[in-house]
Specification:
This protein has helices spanning 2-16, 22-25, 42-62, 84-97. It is an all-alpha fold and 103 residues long. It is globular and about 35 Å long.
């Protein structure tokens, strides 16, 4: 009987502690705002697109088992353009973690 009493106390303390993620308890934790779309000229978009192609080529060497590509230039929406270095980060995050965060 005492054994069950102690187990119930432990479970009760565990449940009352909240068992939460530290990030949720952190008052300084805030969600990132949606990225501000870039206002690029057609020439800038072409330059970014060429850099995207280079990124895919470079990452193809680093991650040979991955099949990657870039969608056609005219299919990229204005709000989808990101700085090439940000695109590299997003691509690496996807390749290593299977997660693609746009922020």
């Amino acid at each position: 009987m005492n054994k069950y009493f102690y187990v119930s106390i432990l479970l009760g303390a565990f449940a009352l502690s909240g068992c939460t993620d530290d990030k949720a308890d952190n008052k300084e934790f805030t969600e990132e705002a949606a990225p501000i779309p870039l206002n690029l000229t057609k020439e800038q978009k072409e330059d970014y697109y060429n850099q995207y192609l280079e990124i895919v080529e470079d990452l193809g060497v680093e991650y040979p088992s991955a099949t990657m590509g870039v969608i056609p230039f005219d299919e990229i929406l204005d709000e989808d353009w990101v700085e090439p270095e940000k695109q590299r980060e997003l691509s690496i995050n996807f390749l290593e973690n299977g997660v693609f965060f746009a922020n």
